[in-house]
Every structure is written in structure tokens, then in C-alpha cells.
Design brief:
- One of its GO terms (molecular function) is ATP binding.
- It catalyses: L-homoserine + ATP = O-phospho-L-homoserine + ADP + H(+).
- InterPro entries: GHMP_kinase_C_dom (IPR013750), GHMP_kinase_C_sf (IPR036554), GHMP_kinase_N_dom (IPR006204), GHMP_knse_ATP-bd_CS (IPR006203), Homoserine_kinase (IPR000870), Ribosomal_Su5_D2-typ_SF (IPR020568), Ribsml_uS5_D2-typ_fold_subgr (IPR014721).
- Belongs to the GHMP kinase family. Homoserine kinase subfamily.
- Its EC number is 2.7.1.39.
- There is one protein chain.
- This protein is α+β, with helices and mostly antiparallel strands.
- The chain has 2 domains: 199 residues, Ribosomal Protein S5, domain 2, CATH 3.30.230; 137 residues, Alpha-Beta Plaits (2-Layer Sandwich), CATH 3.30.70.890.
- Helix content is 32%, strand content 24%.
- The chain contains 12 helices and 11 strands.
- Strands 1, 2, 3, 4, 5, 6 and 11 form a 7-stranded mixed beta sheet that branches.
- α1 links the parallel β3 and β4.
- α2 crosses α4.
- It is globular, with a radius of gyration of 21 Å.
- The mean pLDDT is 93.
- Bound molecules: adenosine-5'-triphosphate and L-homoserine.
- The site of L-homoserine has 13 residues, from β1, β2, α4 and α7.
- L-homoserine (HSE) binds next to β1, β2, α4 and α7.
């Protein structure tokens, strides 16, 4: 057996794009990259657990213990589901991350997709993309970020309605899907891992106008998706649902048209399902989304919360700096500092074998 080496690359994502709560996602040009080397054990190099090193966003907070780190725990989940009880020996993983944590740019979705791809490679499982998505959806249960991170582009997805047995299989607590593995437990993890039902997630890729860039205005504070979901109601009025459905139906085609129509898109990126409730967690959100318009900022198409926030996503064909700097000034009135980046819409995740 010879040394194997490969690189996994997963893009950032922005979910919702206004009205498409838990439905649409967009892959963006910031990357989580894993460089992985597997060295066969020799008599002089005894087997050891994976060694993780990490640079970039989150480096000061991410666990480097492979049994605690989200990406490697997801990889181990895949291996265990295929009767491989532990990591191969002598795996080295260097992670470099450009996706800020807890900002609404899909950092956790990227970590989960990286873990699924890592498990697939470590176990040489050769799973098809649809099956990889099933595993990701057992961990991150809304499909918008993980689907866009895996397949790339502007993507709409839904979860298949499952029969009783499959619903139970898919509803197991996350702690059973991804237990906090005690490092001294050897191979004896106890429970059989819950297998994902087949074909949970389904998606379609929409067109995307090449002239549109995404300005990500990123407040310098983290907001966990869990917290940002707790403020949402369980039920909505018919009026609000119809408001969102009308806009989403228009938006998915409007963003593919050349040239894109700001009048159509600005209104189609409005939302009544999640943004109004999240404004309590993101001071400045209503002001930024209402004061920056195509009339005040030529080139702007539409503006919304990115994922669960706090990042604001402005889609535009021009005028990126003015949009971002004016958003910065509004946030500053609320005592919040931001960073901003102009991003492009990119393809999905990749795994490239590297020569050693
Ligand atoms: N590269 C990574 N490696 C390990 N853990 C990560 C990584 N990226 C994110 N995480 C975990 O995910 C958490 C952030 O997830 P969360 O869902 O709250 O935000 P997000 O995914 O950045 O935002 P959103 O889902 O709204 O786009 C981090 O605090 C960290 O625990
Ligand atoms: N659709 C999700 C995306 C966050 O990951 C939400 O808005 O909560």
C-alpha cells in the first residue's frame, strides 16, 4: 500500500436569498480546503489517530481532536455506517478555512460537506453524490446550505416526504448521529450508527446571470444558526406565506435573466418568514435592507440577510463599494463594525488526488 494524498475544497454558501427560507442556496467564492495525506503504517511508525492542523477562520476556536471536530466526526460517521469502525491509521489533515464562523455564510454546512467527502475518500467508499447528500442531511437538516455547497451554483432543494420507518431513522438526535467520541474508547462506540434513508434530498440548479456579484457585508459578531432559528414562529399566516411564495417563484428565474431587472429582483428578494423576526438579533438589519435600494445605489439588484445572519447579502452588477460602505455606515450607527467582500457564484465541492 502506498501513500495517498488528496485535496478537498468546499465553497461558502448563502441560504434563503430573501424569500427562500430553507429552500434556496448560492455557492460563493470563499473556500474550506482540506489537504489530506494517508501514510501506510510501517514497523517503525505505529498506527496513530488523525493529526489535524488548522489555519484561517475559526483557528482559535475549532477543536483539533479528530473525535470532537465537526468535519472529522462526520467523516467517522460515514465510515461507521460502512462497517469501518475507526479512521485509517496515519492520516494527516491540514485545514485552511476562509469561511467565517456563525455569520450566515454556511461555515457549518461546508464543514459537514467536507466531512462527508473526507469519509468517502478515507473509506474508499465511492458513494454517488445523492448518497453523500443523504449523509449530510442527517447532520444538517435543512438542505439549502449543504446542497449548494456540494453541487454548486444557485440551487433549490426539498426533503422527500419519508415513510414512517424512514422518518424515524431520519429523526434520531444529532448526538446519536455524531456522538462526542471518547478518545479512549477504542473501537467500541456502542450504538450502531443510524443509517440515512435513501434519497432524502432532491435539488434543481437554476440559471444565474454572469453579470451578478454578491457583496457580503459581514458584521464582526457571531450569531449561531440555532439561536437565529429559536426566534422564528412555528406558524405563519396565509398572507405571509403567499407573499414569500410569489416572490420566490419570480426570483428563481429573474436572477438568470440578461440583463437582470433591478425593479423585479429588489421586490422579489423581500421576505416575511424569517428576516422580520431576526431583526432583534441583528441591529441595523431593517435599516440596511430598506435604505439601500436600486434608486439610491445604481447597480444594486436586491438585498437580504445571508442565511441565518448576521451577514447581509447584496446582489449587484455594479456599485459594489458604495453599497458596502453605506451599509457599513448604517451598521456603525448601531455600534457594529463590519468587513465586506465582493464574491462570485462558483461551482460545487471538489476532491482532487494529489501526487506524492
Ligand atoms: N471548518 C470548520 N471546522 C469545524 N467546525 C466548524 C467549521 N466551520 C463551522 N464549524 C462549526 O459550526 C459553527 C457555526 O455554525 P452555524 O450554523 O451556527 O453558522 P454558519 O454555518 O456559519 O451560518 P449559516 O448556517 O447561517 O450560514 C461553528 O461555531 C463551529 O462550531
Ligand atoms: N435556512 C437556514 C440557513 C441557515 O443555515 C436559516 O435561515 O436558518
Amino acid at each position: 500500500m502506498s501513500e495517498r494524498s488528496f485535496t478537498i475544497s468546499v465553497p461558502a454558501t448563502s441560504a434563503n436569498i430573501g424569500p427562500g427560507f430553507d429552500v434556496v442556496g448560492l455557492s460563493l467564492s470563499l473556500y474550506l480546503t482540506l489537504k489530506v495525506t494517508i501514510t501506510p503504517p510501517t514497523q517503525s511508525t505505529p498506527p496513530r489517530p488523525p493529526v489535524l492542523t488548522y489555519t484561517g477562520e475559526g483557528a482559535d476556536e475549532v477543536p483539533l481532536d479528530a473525535y470532537k471536530n465537526l468535519t472529522t466526526r462526520v467523516a467517522l460517521y460515514l465510515l461507521r455506517c460502512h462497517d469501518i469502525p475507526k479512521f485509517p491509521t496515519n492520516v494527516s489533515i491540514h485545514v485552511d478555512n476562509e469561511i467565517p464562523f456563525g455569520r450566515g455564510l454556511g461555515s457549518s454546512g461546508a464543514a459537514v460537506i467536507a466531512g462527508v467527502l473526507l469519509g468517502n475518500e478515507l473509506g474508499q467508499l465511492n458513494l454517488p453524490q445523492t448518497r453523500l447528500l443523504d449523509f449530510a442531511l442527517m447532520v444538517e437538516r435543512h438542505p439549502d446550505n449543504v446542497t449548494a455547497a456540494l453541487v454548486g451554483g444557485f440551487v433549490g432543494s426539498y426533503l422527500r416526504e419519508l415513510d414512517q420507518a424512514a422518518t424515524e431513522a431520519a429523526s434520531v438526535p444529532l448526538s446519536e448521529v455524531l456522538p462526542e467520541y471518547p478518545p479512549d474508547a477504542g473501537e467500541d462506540w456502542g450504538l450502531d450508527p443510524p443509517q440515512p434513508p435513501l434519497g432524502i434530498g432532491h435539488y434543481v440548479r437554476f440559471g444565474w446571470s454572469k453579470s451578478i456579484r454578491a457583496v457580503a457585508i459581514i458584521p464582526r459578531f457571531e450569531l449561531s444558526t440555532a439561536t437565529a432559528r429559536e426566534v422564528l414562529p412555528l406558524e405563519y399566516s396565509r398572507k405571509d406565506l403567499v407573499f414569500n411564495l410569489q416572490r420566490l417563484a419570480v426570483l428563481t428565474t429573474a436572477l438568470a435573466q440578461e440583463p437582470p431587472d433591478p425593479e423585479l429582483i429588489y421586490e422579489a428578494m423581500k421576505d416575511r418568514i424569517h428576516q422580520p423576526y431576526r431583526k432583534t438579533l441583528i441591529p441595523g438589519l431593517p435599516e440596511v435592507t430598506s435604505r439601500i435600494t436600486p434608486e439610491t445605489h445604481p447597480g444594486l439588484l436586491g438585498i437580504c440577510l445571508s442565511g441565518a445572519g448576521p451577514t447581509i447579502l447584496a446582489l449587484a452588477t455594479d456599485g459594489y463599494e458604495k453599497i458596502a460602505e453605506d451599509a457599513r455606515a448604517i451598521f456603525r450607527e448601531k455600534g457594529i463594525e463590519v468587513d465586506w467582500k465582493v464574491l462570485t457564484v462558483v461551482g460545487g465541492s471538489s476532491v482532487k488526488k494529489t501526487e506524492v
